[in-house]
Amino acid sequence: MSHLITRSLVATLIAAACALTAGSALAATKKAKAEAAPPAPLAELSPEQIANAERVLVGAQHCEFNQTISVESAPEKAGYFRIAFKGKKYLLVPEPTTTGAVRLEDKKAGVVWLQIANKSMMMNSKIGQRMVDECIHPTQKI
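Now predict its structure.
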């Protein structure tokens, strides 16, 4: 009887090892495909979006609670911007507004950058919360 149990246990262990190996190979294949896939082309911007992009204040901005955010022009395409905050980077595009505020948005990540005359802030539009506020570019100082 114990010989039968041992054979069954060995068979189970071999099957588990095969499943783990297959899972690792599948994960490695998916990762390689994701890394090899070229990024989707960036959409063309409207004249209004380009006009808004020209008003974006780039560079480091000091925010509330001793935080810093970096806004830079994206090298991939004129009018797009990269924002770095807390170790994460977002690719944002200008969106038209009726208020005169500058609005940049990364719809995939749900990140919105709002710039008004005296400050800027970053919002998470998916949950409706501010991520950081009171960001001041040197030209916004009163």
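The first helix runs from residue 2 to 36.
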